[in-house]
Amino acid sequence: MEQTSEVSKEETSEQILRFFRQHKEEWRSFVSDFLPVTPHPPLQALAKFFVIRSNQPFDMQAYMKAQAEFIKNSLDGSLDSSTPLERQKLVAEWLRHNAQSHRDQIILDQARRIEICGELVERGLKDLLEGVVANW
After folding, report:
1. Does a structural domain hold residue 99?
2. Hey, is 27 helix, strand or coil?
3. N or C: which end of the chain has fewer CB within 10 A?
């Protein structure tokens, strides 16, 4: 989920578009809020701002899997020698101190992927705005 190189641009583009389809009304409202200030704001910039503001992973299941792997790697083997209760405490401590920072990194990576896949997602993003923005 984190690395674009692990997933093809087409798969990443589909993840991006699926996210925007799932949040279609919020996306339309978000863009509508910008129109009085900027009649034709840059679409990719708006999409990146929307993703950052939403603070939600494109794919929650993939995010949780990546986070679990990241926690395991961060705790550097100490989970293997721990009892289940100790392991639970270590993970809870990691989450308390690092979860938001990790999520922020993932969300910013998602915003960068919108630019990487710009041409592949632009038409779909525009289609979701039909009736909101004329002549984009």
Report:
1. yes
2. helix
3. C
What is the mean predicted confidence (pLDDT) over 38-64?
Answer: 91
In terms of Cβ atoms closer than 10 Å to its own Cβ (0-12, 13-18, 19+), residue 58 is buried
Count how many domains the chain has: 1
pLDDT in tens, 66-107: 888 888 888 877 777 888 898 889 899 989 998 889 899 999
Average pLDDT of 105-129?
94
Please determine, for residue 3, whether its predicted confidence score (pLDDT) is greater than 60: no
User: For residue 57, which amino acid is it?
Assistant: P
Residue at 136 is within a domain: no
CA–CA dist 27, 17 (Å, integer)? 11
What is the domain range of residue 117?
A: 4-128
Q: Tokens 């093809």 appear where?
A: 8
Helices 118-128 + 9-22 axis angle, to 10: 20
Residues contacting 65, CB < 8 A, separation 6+: 1
